[in-house]
Give the backbone structure.
Amino acid sequence: MAAAAGRLLPLMLLLLPLLVVGAAASSVTYDHRSLIIDGRRRLLISTSIHYPRSVPAMWPKLVAEAKDGGADCIETYVFWNGHETAPGQYYFEDRFDLVQFARVVKDAGLYLMLRIGPFVAAEWNFGGLPVWLHYIPGTVFRTNNEPFMSHMKSFTTKIVDMMKNEQFFASQGGHIILAQIENEYGGDEQAYGPGGKAYAMWAASMALAQNTGVPWTMCQQPDAPDPVVNTCNSFYCDQFEPNSPTKPKIWTENWPGWFQNFGESNPHRPPEDVAFSVARFFGKGGSLQNYYVYHGGTNFGRTTGGPFITTSYDYDAPIDEYGLRRLPKWAHLTELHKSIKLCEHTLLYGNSTLLSLGPQQEADIYTDHSGGCAAFLSNIDSEKDTVVTFRNKQYDLPAWSVSILPDCKNVVFNSAKVRSQTLMMDMVPETLQASKPDQWSIFTETVGIWDKKDFVRNRFVDHINTTKDSTDYLWYTTSFDVDISYLASGNQPVLNIDSEGHAVHAFLNNMLIGSAYGNGSISSFNVHMPINLKAGKNNIALLSMTVGLHNAGIHYEWVGAGLTSVKISGTKNGTIDLSSNNWAYKIGMEGEHYSLFKPDQGNNQRWRPQSDPPKHQPLTWYKVNVDVPQGDDPVGLDMMSMGKGLAWLNGNAIGRYWTRTSSTDDRCNSTCNYRGTFSPDKCRTGCGKPTQRWYHVPRSWFHPSGNTLVVFEEQGGDPTKITFSRRVATSVCAFVSENYPSVDLKSWGKSISDDGRVGAKVQLSCPKGKIISTIKFASFGDPSGTCRSYQQGSCHHPNSLSVLEKACLNRNSCTVSLSEEGFGEDMCPGVTKTLAVEADCA
Ligand SMILES: *[C@@H]1O[C@H](CO)[C@@H](O)[C@H](O)[C@H]1NC(C)=O
Ligand SMILES: *[C@@H]1O[C@H](CO)[C@@H](O)[C@H](O)[C@H]1NC(C)=O
Ligand SMILES: *[C@@H]1O[C@H](CO)[C@@H](O)[C@H](O)[C@H]1NC(C)=O
Ligand SMILES: *[C@@H]1O[C@H](CO)[C@@H](O)[C@H](O)[C@H]1NC(C)=O
Ligand SMILES: *[C@@H]1O[C@H](CO)[C@@H](O)[C@H](O)[C@H]1NC(C)=O
């Protein structure tokens, strides 16, 4: 024993420092200026990472990337419907292992902000509330009624108690510094009548009674009662003021991008504008800002909200869906955070003065007793760049930008001057899969009722009330007789379907004749399909689908789905209304019933081996053995050749796929002007293309060998063209001007006389293990354009390419100063020079 202990000792000594790492606090309070942690005011950068939108194997790296990006705190919602799967039945495993996620954050030395909700919206199915709760008699969500409130209280208490058991609250020496109750209720409160206010006040007091010892917030809740802090969610929160002079100014959701709907183009928020909003917030007295979301991740399985929200929840966030840094956004914000932190003490303990520097230019100046001075110079003109004079020095201020001066003299950061490189990511296909052709198996669904019908009605039932969201699918089937004379009329009959949503595939006599779905966030639709009837009995089978349940809005839980009217027009007899026919119903797909997606569940006899799987066949399940994509790059499943359906790897639900394209005129613009107030319609790409082509498959879902991909295709596609793609950086770009000086933030402040400034420079860096293989474009002069479409201007230094090649070729990374000797000769005096570079990584 002694010998063993002796051997263990050095190991324990090594581990000991690791064990004591981790965020810890003992008290969190607040005053009008900020949170006060262990007696000290704090200026905090927080980043949202939602644990079920990635997998546990990704958590440590995601949290580390947030920390490297300057985060002090991780924020997450708590997803009730993922945790309480039936009343009193809890699930905290795998992606829903909240305690483990909280521990990862603690071990990284970061604080945690827990937004319990339990209503969260969050583009998450049903806003995070359990579907079963809606069916408990007498329940109305988010207002003053007993069943809702008692379940909400039980769940909130459950979560708080779990965190207390782990000693996670700061009051217990842990890292949770804030908790949130409810979510964006203020705007809806009136609509709920007198019960609204009563409910909001009850929620606040229920939360306070949990005795967590840390402050509670309510976001977008102007009447949040003391001591609950009301906070701001928006693209900009510099003008926000809390409802009491005793509360600090907190921004719980800064949206650095936006979510996507199937069938729409892809929104982007420029990094210059995100940085502008953050700098304005801190310049105007803000003390805690959270990015919603910093990593968006993936709505795996059927967790996405709706209708129509994509499986990807990339959000154009600083860390992309696949867990990789999005550059320049990640790096630009990282520089911003460091720059703001240089001002922390002066901002929090100094007095502020507002000084006008021009019609739309101003300085927010902070001075403290120890002689500290920090200034935020803003140009909120959305068109004109300008030069301002501040304390006898001139500063150029691009339109819609903020410069940060931690000593009131030297600019360390300007929100519009992006110094970071751009990393261009591509999805590089692997040749999939079935190494041997006989590895395909298929299962074909029956059109309409399989096995036995569930029930018959001579009317339409509500889709969601019937499935209770146990599946996306509900069959509505009927038949009717047509006589010969009717067919002879020569008219083209038309099938007219009205639906409250969300989508339908229409089958006539076992043939798919068309599909229809709602648009944008409008789930309802109507559709007219020309049809060919036959003499005698005709069968209509309509497969109604939900595509994510509504996640927000007043009384959103009562929004219905499914068919409301089915008629055949254009017949000799006029219009035949089939709505009150006998309709036979079947809930779900047969393949779901037999869990065909689960590996090794004794389903093998249902699967039919096929050397050549059928193509363009609706309602087909495909199973194939696949190889692990090489390397360790993140993996996406390329579903371009498919229609709509669900996919699984080794039984793990990848999610809904749908290659629905956006229209060519869906708000896209080849130029994105970061200047001026952002809205999600402003900078969109991907018009005329599928909203989502690739579906993230976490690496940890693969086995070393023997991997099974299962796909259920509703409409028809070519499964042999499905491939895995690896997400890799294939090129890097940079666009840096002489007046974008780099600042060595590490040495800043060590000697105040030396501001750490070095000349402007371009820094290129390929991912680990890759080198810069080609310089595709280089121009020192006045080039223009964006990455992959840079163009030379009228001023171009002839050495541009050779200087870059000499410094960068065959290296993993390189730095080129704009004052480089090679650029010595001034080709165009008086022109502010820019160096633009595009290079390939291989
Ligand atoms: C800030 O202003 C208050 C009230 O004018 C004054 O008492 C305090 O000393 C000032 N603090 C600093 C750091 O200038
Ligand atoms: C059309 O009307 C005729 C006469 O009323 C009836 O016999 C026939 O069944 C009708 N056809 C259909 C398709 O309803
Ligand atoms: C959806 O929008 C497209 C393009 O604007 C339009 O053609 C189509 O009719 C719309 N569908 C519905 C159901 O409104
Ligand atoms: C769903 O069922 C509830 C009763 O549980 C009913 O009040 C509601 O109207 C139904 N919804 C629809 C859209 O039919
Ligand atoms: C596209 O950008 C240009 C230039 O910024 C602008 O004038 C135009 O309105 C934009 N178009 C759309 C559809 O946003």
Remarks:
- The longest helix spans residues 146-165.
- The radius of gyration is 30 Å.
- Residues 350-351, 367-369 surround 2-acetamido-2-deoxy-beta-D-glucopyranose (ligand 1) (CB under 6 Å).
- The CA atoms of residues 310 and 832 lie 44 Å apart.
